[in-house]
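Sample intake sheet
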Amino acid sequence: MNPSPATLKDVAAAAGVSVSTASRALAGNPVITEQTSERVRQCAEELNYRPNAQARALRSSRTHVIGVTIPSLVNPFFATMAQVIQQEATARGLSTIISSTAEDPGQLNASLDVLATQRVDGILAVPYNGSEASFERLRKARIPVVLLDRELPATGLSTVASDPRPGMDAAVAHLLANGHRHIGYLSGPMTTSTGVSRLAAFQAACERHGVEKREIYRGGYERADGHAGTLTLLDRGVEAIIAGDTMMSVGALEACHARKVIIGRDLAFIGYDDNVTLRLQASPVSVIDQDVATLGRTGLRLLVDLMSGASPPTTVTTPTTLIIRPSSDFIRPADEVRT
C-alpha cells in the first residue's frame, strides 16, 4: 500500500510552524523571515511535498482588491485622494483596503506587511523616507506598487507626484507684485520628498524674484506645526505667509484668528491644496493647488497597467497652479510695514 502524499499540514508540523505560515513561506511572502522560509522549504523537499494543483491555481488567481496607504484621513488632501481612488477603483471592478498610517514610517511598514498577507493585487502608497526596505520586500514578492505624492527614488518604483515649482514661483511673484516683500514660509518635514522639494522651490523662487527678506519655519505636516510656525513668523514681522501643506494651512488660519490678524488686510496668506475649508473663510484663501483628483486617478491607472503586465513610466509629474483669492490679492501700501 502506497503511503499518503505529504500535506501542507505535515510540512508545517515538521518545520514547527502554523499551516498559514508554511503556506506563506512556500508562496514567497515577504512577511515571513528568510530563516523560517528556508526551514519550511527544506522540510517540504524532504517530505516530497507537492502543492495541490487546484489550491495552487487558487493562490495565483487575482483577488480584485488593491491596498491604499495614506498618512492621514483627517487631512482633507489625503481624504480626497482616498475617495477618488476608491471611486475610480469601484468603476473598474476593484475593491479597496485603505490604511491610515498617521505620518509614522513604522505604521506604514506594518500596513504594507498586512496588505501583502491579504493577497492584494497591487498597492498605492504615500511613502516616507526610511521605508525603502518594506517596498523592496513587496518588489521581491512581485506585488505591483505605485507611489503617490512623495518620491523614493532609490526604490525605482512608479511614482505620481506634483512639481511644486510652477505654483510656488507664481505665488512669490504674486505677493511681490502686490507689495508684500517680507515673506514667510511654513516648511514641511525634511523626512519627506515633498518637504524637501517645496522648500527648495520656495528658496529658488525667492532668489529668482529678488526677495531679500524671507523667513522659514521648519515644522511638520500637522495643524499644530502650522499654528506654532505662523505665530513665530508673525513675531518676525512677515507681511505674507505661504504654507507648505493643507494641515499647516489650517493651523495658520487658527493662529491668525487667535492673534486677531485679519487675513486679506493685515497679512497676505497663501495655503497649499484647494479644499472647502480654505474657500469658505471670510477672506477666501489663495492656494498652490496640486489637483489631488488627477494625482489619484493617474496613480490608479498606472497601478492597473502594472497589474496587467504593462510597464508604465517610472515617474509621472503633474504641475502645481496658483489659485488667487482675496487672502493675498490686495495691495500693501509702500510705506506700510508690519510690526
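Comment: The first helix runs from residue 8 to 15. The first strand starts at residue 65 and ends at 70.
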